[in-house]
Write a structure and sequence with these properties.
Layout: E1 2-6, E2 11-15, H1 20-32, E3 42-51, E4 56-66, E5 72-82, H2 89-102
């Protein structure tokens, strides 16, 4: 699915895909529809991964910026986290111990 999301001064193309080939073909469609051309100022690829055995989510972001002088600035970030399931009093106690250990 290729969605167009307008915002203040830019346009965001949101591609929701599960397979690499689907994502690649969606990027080609965006380029053919002239969303990706020589006038582009920034290109951000953001995706989320989930590992069920460890219950860890990972967000990966790759950003490429094109300056007016013609230079290319790239950056990337990765952030992993888990979502705690707190259904009982024991779960809340374990979560409190983990939070106090982090501090």
């Amino acid at each position: 699915m290729l969605m167009l999301l307008p915002s203040a001064n830019n346009v965001s193309v949101d591609i929701v895909m599960t397979l690499q080939t689907e994502a690649f073909s969606a990027m080609l469609r965006a380029q053919n529809q002239r969303w990706i051309d020589r006038k582009i100022k920034a290109f951000n690829v953001l995706f989320t991964l989930y590992n069920p055995p460890t219950n860890i989510f990972t967000i990966v972001s790759f950003l490429t910026e094109f300056s007016a002088s013609g230079s290319i600035i790239t950056s990337s970030s990765t952030e992993s986290f888990t979502i705690y399931r707190t259904t009982t009093v024991v779960d809340y106690f374990i979560m409190a111990l983990k939070v106090s250990y982090i501090k």
